[in-house]
């Protein structure tokens, strides 16, 4: 039995009004320890027990873990650019870029190097520290990878951290990305393994884990998270977090996306998630992955400022900045600057 499982079963059985300081101590102990990651394991039940805490207790735990590991008022800022939009062969049920769904997204060719560099300079001037390049591919073909390697090298030379999300990687491709100067590779697990098959059929969960292993093996930082609000259960939300938190080394960066519902995709029309459940998910990610940057990702445009502030309080410490994600909207840069000023947050 995992060391922490016994402790959290106490939490689940507790009367609601009692503050469980023993559990806080246990979770803080995990958060502060820099022992090998295999001791920091979480069962799905333990994570569900976190979700079931009274909201204020959960926030207190998350904020305490957050403060033990990070500057609580600093938020890392990444800007995203879709370097290859639409026409994707995959069937991810949430995605407006899948060719098979009838959405307003058109199939466009790979962007030209100069245009990517102009966008990167703009992102840098706006205060972003990392520039993420996304492509609507199942995975990169060698002839597609070559120009992307050049983009990575040149963006890096501008003094920005580089991130790419290009789909599944084949043997040898992670090495090429590393040699080009890639700092982060984003590849999401998306959801719990049990729910996964309801959302995607053209690639398996294991395919995703294999790509993440390739990224790890060449020492590129891992950025991996998922999407909340796709109709999954709370147990399945906890299951996704368990997958991430129990990796031998949890991802350095964990994007938590709220499903952006796009007309024409199979998940359009899914029942909307209660914002508090989304905040709870952020808090549980913070507690279970104390040293990772937790990114409040897609879905911010539809959130009130108060919900976003709760997400920061719950331990989110990274965002995508700039009015577009890949194909959908994100808050205006000026609006985010105002929000940071109101909350006393400074960009990292
Ligand atoms: N094609 C590559 C892949 O799938 O790995 C890279 C780009 S893909 C669009 C990156 C991630 O964006 C997906 O794994 C998914 O988690 C997220 N995403 C896509 N559409 C979304 C939506 N409608 N709402 C929230 N997140 C979304
Ligand atoms: C991630 O987890 N979220 C970003 C990034 N990684 C690539 C993408 C969100 C996409 C939202 C839908 C769109 O704009 O097309
Ligand atoms: Fe293609 Fe990526 Fe969209 Fe899936 S998430 S359809 S792989 S662009």
Automatic annotation (TrEMBL):
SUPFAM superfamilies (alphabetical): Radical SAM enzymes
Keywords, A to Z, come to: 2Fe-2S, 4Fe-4S, Biotin biosynthesis, Iron, Iron-sulfur, Metal-binding, S-adenosyl-L-methionine, Transferase
Q: What is its EC number?
A: 2.8.1.6
InterPro entries named among the record's database cross-references: Aldolase_TIM, BATS_dom, Biotin_synth/BioAB, Biotin_synthase, Elp3/MiaA/NifB-like_rSAM, rSAM, rSAM_sf
How would you classify this enzyme at the top EC level? Answer: transferase
Single GO BP term: biotin biosynthetic process
Q: Where is the Radical SAM core domain?
A: 73-300
Name the record gives this protein: biotin synthase
Gene label = bioB_4
